[in-house]
Amino acid sequence: MILDNIAVFSTKIPLKKPFITSVRQTEVIEDILVRIRSDELEGWGNACVIPVITGTEKEAIVKDLEKLSKILLGDIEKDFNGIISGIYREKVSNVALAAMDIALHDIFSRKAGLPLAEFLGGSVRPFPICATISLLSPDEMAEDALKLRSEGFSLLKLKVGGNPDLDFARINSVHKAVGEKVSLFIDVNQGWNLDDALSVIKRLSDAGIVPTGIEQPLEFSNYRGMETLKAATSISIFADESANSLSMAMKIITERISSGINVKLQKYGGLRAASIITDWSELSGFKSMAGCMMESPVGVWAMAHLVASRNSFVLCDLDPLVMIRDNPVCSGSQCRAGQMEISRDHGLGISSIDDIKMIKEYWR
What we know:
single chain; alpha/beta; Enolase-like, domain 1; TIM Barrel; 2 domains; 8-stranded parallel beta sheet; 4-stranded antiparallel beta sheet; 17 strands; globular
């Protein structure tokens, strides 16, 4: 395939209500989108603009996409693996790499006449996702939990961190509100130290609360503490910020530092790297959960297609679709009653995207 045109856009998607964690608060999703074209085909990808999480500013993402665009448009015709391998050798940010990787997967799967999930070796199928509850007061979180339960969600992810006593109260309040039929997954975003974590886990056990997992309870570089915590509890401990690169993800899996890992396209550079991590995790008997940043439906659906192509994800946290006020991305994919239903159209199944602003455009 020879690429003819690459365009870079910006978009901002308002949320229904503020998204609050122990690290940040936001009322909008901000993405950089990339669209690549070849003859009558096009592919879409995205890079999230969250410098406090990814370490990459918007201007740097645009510059990296310009570098990748010029390389891709200047190439002679190559097969899919040749093109993907080529961009992974470039020194660019992982979020920019993810945007181009996703767009290339989209356009090549369209060319093959397949939904992306089938292009990746799987099948189009629905699967359950969790819904995330922002870090609020115990009563507010319980109220949000009841609403989400009424919408069909049977697994809730609770944002906590920063105050162990208040965090226990938050979890306990939600548990009492929704009962045993709704599972709880706890995301601390590095908000505890080891003593905090051990204390909260004991209090949960004493209260008869058994979370399905706890995500990133400790500071990202505290690998020894993560191992200690994993050995001290039967609750699965998942690494997120600790697995902030392909090499660190492989280290955590190989050395079994945690019980599982949160796989996100934006962290690793896209579908190719995420597929490698997922497959290595499965072969190693290690747990994987599917995650995403606060990003546009383009990236969420790309991760959803990866989930559908594999059978190894134990939990799927792909809920920005539930949080956005209006969806500007036109596609047959949707989230309904706690289930992700991806489109059977070719590629990502995107027909158009509204409310975007072109930043730059490049031609062969």
